[in-house]
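Suppose you are handed only these lines of text.
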Amino acid sequence: MAATDVEKKHGHGGGDLAGIRNLNLQGHVGFDSLPDQLVNKSVQQKFTFNVLCIGETGLGKSTMMDSLFNTTFDSQQNSTHSFPNVRLKSKTYELLESNVDLKLTIVETVGYGDQINKDNSFQAIVDYIDTQFENYLQEELKIKRSLSTYHDTRAHACLYFICPTGHGLKSIDLVCMKKLDSKINIIPIIAKSDTISKTELQRFKIKIMSELVSNGVQIYQFPTDDETVAETNSSMNNHIPFAVVGSTEFTKINNKMIRARQYPWGTVQVENENHCDFVKLREMLIRINMQDMMEQTHTHHYELYRRMRLEQMGFSDVGADNKPVSFQETYEQKRQEHVQALQRKEEEMRQSFVVRVKEKEAELKEAEKELHTKFDSLKKQHAEEKKKLEEEKKRLEEEINTFNKRKLAIMQAQTQPQSHTHTLGKSKKK
Ligand SMILES: Nc1nc2c(ncn2[C@@H]2O[C@H](COP(=O)(O)OP(=O)(O)O)[C@@H](O)[C@H]2O)c(=O)[nH]1
Ligand SMILES: [Mg+2]
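From them, the structure of the protein bound to magnesium ion can be written out as follows.
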């Protein structure tokens, strides 16, 4: 708070604004309580932290969450290995420590690594992360935003559980982490590290790190810019990936109940730094860097997503001529483009309509012509038939006439030669 007379220049956006003078206060004013005000406000507002646990079924994800938050989340049902695809299971809990309220969401993969074809195992996870970003973006874009009461579900940290094979990473691990590294803070951890020997573990860690580097996978680096934690964080960065052990069982050691796993040959104490890196993970994830991970999520990962989406929608900070464009200008331009496209479409439709009408007209004319010719030929046929019939009629009438004539002749013949017959008869009688 020591003020000096030195004038500092604070350029805004590179502009040459007037210098800002540092002045001495002549007594206590009180704005030194600002950090306290901030703390009070944050405490009242509650904290939200969302963890995404990725790892094969049975690697100890649920057990690890219980161990980390020293509680029993209701996730004890044993998952099977027979799911046809990867899903995500999300649960939200409210935890209270001292007077700090933490709304914790734990998301676990279900069925990860259980399919024969693991090519798209990452897709469900990518979709989940994007959906949370999208939900937040939609809230931000609303006219009536309620971000202060909005349940932020954006995943802040990803614990990636590596199988303790001692052989390096599996391809599913590399592919998945590569897909996620621009979307989330990845903390790789070696699961069930009690199953791997001390010398093997060192080699395993080196192998994993070199594979991550050679594949260009960006994992979360504990920040070293805050001097109060710089030293711890930079030394912890060298311990990644943490080799952890989790347990839901407790053993009494030195009159204290401690989380441990018991084996015929001895006991693994979860919180013993000689036994595993569990404490290091808890320190880094919860006690030291939780806030930084929330910040990274908002200012880095979400920002990337937001930029990508807005650009997809056609918004841009600069136009084609590299000059700044405002939201409104982009909107107007988009609207114009839209209207033009609509007009073009309308014109096209009209043209095609006209063409169709013309085609139909021609078709109809053709049909009419056909009908006419058909009608003509029918008429001709009909006339011919009529003529034929008339001729026939005439012939028949003539026939009837001749017949009648003959009939008459016969009848006359029958009446006339009666005398003749008489004579004949007479002569016969003779
Ligand atoms: N050896 C060993 N076993 C563990 C460890 N953590 C969990 N387990 C056991 O692994 C099994 C599966 O654990 P669970 O947490 O349900 O795995 P999830 O499917 O990944 O959630 C349980 O029997 C646990 O007791 C560990 O650190 N070491
Ligand atoms: Mg589980």
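What can we learn from it? DSSP finds ten helices and eleven strands in the chain. The radius of gyration is 49 Å.
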